[in-house]
Amino acid sequence: MPTDWQRCLAIVAHPDDLEYGAAGAIAGWTAAGHEVSYLLVTRGEAGIDNLPPAEAEKVREREQRASARVVGVDTVEFLDHADGVIEEGPRLRRDLARAIRRHRPELLLTLNHHESWGTPGSWNTPDHRAVGRAVLDAAGDAGNRWIFPELVDEGHEPWNGVRYVAVASSPYASHAVDVTRTLDRAVASLAEHHAYISALDDRDPAEYAREHLTGYTQSAAERFGGRPAVSFELFTR
User: Fold this and answer.
1) Which end of the chain is less packed: N or C, by CB atoms within 10 Å?
2) Positive or negative, the Cα torsion across 23, 99, 82, 87?
3) What global pTM score does this model have?
């Protein structure tokens, strides 16, 4: 993965999307002095079956902020689109373009936007697909003053500085980051999602997180030099 960038804006649909893999790379980037900010399109309010949305969104926001701190990320923002029914279209693209113009990143990070996760029967969710595709579109929208000209009226001048878009968990991964030294922090980051994990699995969240991320990073290692890794599909602009 390229390292000739200073600022990254990670844009995903839900709390926990970044922790199921990408956080190991993020921990290494922040430790090396790169700036990483998170933008969550929803608050994940529809993600915990035994909690009503009005309660779940508070829990999930709190868990996401704690999770981000573990890997050195202090800025966590939410757009408040509806969880589970994110609509792909101009409104979402405008919200993302606005955020890109504010944060002025060289690297955008998002989650798999393809129809599947790369294994038979592994259908991807509508929210992931919608947000991932919108991030790719908004990378260009952010640099064109005639797309969403109202953003200029708001004081957000065009930003053409996005050089890379990295897609985590893509079935078409082309690049990877060695996470040998940051795997423990990635596990701790995912384990901060106590309520979410507890609704999925009876194990201790830390045990669940370690098993999941060990398997995920070892799977990537088979393709990328034999070391625990987080993989990305990389687009350049």
Assistant:
1) C
2) negative
3) 0.97
